[in-house]
Amino acid sequence: MICAGTGLAPVCAFAQQYVEHISADRTVAPTLLFIGCRHLEKDALSLDQFNEWKEKRAVQVKRAATRSPEESEGCKYVQHLLWEERESVRGLWSKGAGIYVCRNGRMAEEVDSVLVKIWVEKTGKSEEDARE
Prior knowledge:
- By secondary structure, this protein is an alpha/beta fold.
- The chain is built from 6 helices and 4 strands.
- The longest helix has 19 residues, at 105-123.
- InterPro entries: FNR_nucleotide-bd (IPR039261), OxRdtase_FAD/NAD-bd (IPR001433).
């Protein structure tokens, strides 16, 4: 799942559902959530919730910070973090994972481009094939 901080609500619903499944001893697939924000500490929307999800192994949260990239593995934008984590993304794809993007203008276009790049690097096929 990929979103900017303003698109957090829909992905939170997914994560909460995963926690419910885990609490009911149901199996859930590994899940990555990439969130873009300005500052990790100042924009710590739902930080307690993220930590709970991580502890319950419902969702692994990766955050990119535009104003403090040194706090987010040097990644200024969510698409940069997505590229850095491409091995994890490819691993999930190989297990049939889907992609959910809470879109917002430019970020969505950049995320699409990075996802295509990851797929092309993985398969050796064309960008046209990836977009299909």
